[in-house]
Amino acid sequence: MSFDRQLEQAEKKISALAERAGDATSHALNRAAIEAKSRAVDEITKQVALDKSYVRERLKISKTKKDETGYYSQISAQNQGVLLTRFPYAQTFGPRKSGVGQKATGIKGRIKTNREYQSNFFLMPLKNSNTMGIAKRTKATGRDNYRVLHAPSVAQVFNTVREDISPEVIADIQKNLMRELEKLYG
Fold first, then answer.
1. Residue 181's domain spans which residues?
2. Most CB within 10 Å of its CB: which of 3, 29, 51, 77?
3. What is the DSSP string of 48-61?
4. Coil/strand/helix, residue 137
5. Is residue 116 domain-shared with residue 143, that is, in the same domain?
6. How many helices, marked H, and strands, marked E, lie in the chain?
7. What mean pLDDT is predicted for residues 91-113?
8. CA-CA-CA-CA torsion sign (13, 15, 20, 21)
């Protein structure tokens, strides 16, 4: 076998090995992104009183991509405020002026896991939606004298927990990359 032929085979093996190493990196990052998402969901639900399934639906993982700096995977979230009806709440009732029966006097609920609110908010059906919202009066009288209330978006809360989970995420990436390289070079 000629030297040129051997060199050509060696180049093919090296490029195949480099491609498999890139795939291993991609697999490790994808697995670490899934673990990071579950860590983020846990931390977000510790801070705000949302269901884990709701937060999990709002966090999205992009597939691992490669650019000039290397491989990366990204977790993003919707930047839209969350309706207060997504959080635990209950209507409060009080006596009517006439003394007969009760009327709705406000809403009591919880946005942060350790803090409750109670105010004279009210429930109302939202326009162009099949959803109820919690609203607050803006003026004493008038037809459209209300404002529908929102809590911080999942993206805003995710940005606050991102730094908290980064050491564990880095450790997960290292662990998964080592596992993939051991499979590759084994």
1. 3-78+154-185
2. 29
3. B---HHHHHHHEEE
4. strand
5. yes
6. 3, 10
7. 84
8. positive
